[in-house]
């Protein structure tokens, strides 16, 4: 959190209107341009992260930049003007070609890498019978459905060091909200849902 704030100050040294240097306030909570009087506040980008389920399986995906063997839930930045529900539906459709039927909010997390994001985690379901995925290879390297047993076993054994070595499937570490979302699904598949 402190590092994220320091990075934000470092990247906002100049006013985008006047081009003049901005000044940090005593608390470090904002920067002001003495010339244009514009006040700059630290910002976070909202990101939706969604664990899609068809009732019995969950959908996990990986990007080529992920460590070898690691699969996670689908994530993507919210666009300007979008609601959380719209962002979830768009991201799931764009990345794997599925239509979200229902969604349920789970939790949120500040994520400082590489810049500040507010991760908004949701469970989503698709209609049984409409589960054929079309992986968008511009965004993902691979995606697939995983059974409850496969995911529960991966969670129990989750050790990035050995699993990367053997190239077996593993999940994000505990500090990531993706891990909590997957754990939640394994322990108690969501039952109360909101219309998407
Ligand atoms: N905590 C977790 O469990 C967890 C899990 C997955 C992803 N994440 C984080 O979520 C974020 C988004 O994930 P992703 O897989 O889409 O990331 P990504 O870094 O692959 O970004 C995808 C694309 O979004 C665009 N982009 C970058 N910054 C943006 C911004 N501020 N607003 C709008 N678009 C932007 C870029 O074109 C980028 O290529 C990343 O910061 C990632 O680290 C966190």
TrEMBL record:
It catalyses: NADH + H2O = reduced beta-nicotinamide D-ribonucleotide + AMP + 2 H(+); NAD(+) + H2O = beta-nicotinamide D-ribonucleotide + AMP + 2 H(+); NADPH + H2O = reduced beta-nicotinamide D-ribonucleotide + adenosine 2',5'-bisphosphate + 2 H(+). GO terms for cellular component: mitochondrion. Its cofactor is Mn(2+); Mg(2+). NAD(P)H pyrophosphatase that hydrolyzes NADH into NMNH and AMP, and NADPH into NMNH and 2',5'-ADP. Has a marked preference for the reduced pyridine nucleotides. Does not show activity toward NAD-capped RNAs; the NAD-cap is an atypical cap present at the 5'-end of some RNAs. It holds the Pfam family Zn_ribbon_NUD. It is found in: Mitochondrion. SUPFAM superfamilies: Nudix (SSF55811). It is an enzyme of class 3 (hydrolase). NCBIfam families: PRK00241.1 (NF001299). This is NAD(P)H pyrophosphatase NUDT13, mitochondrial.
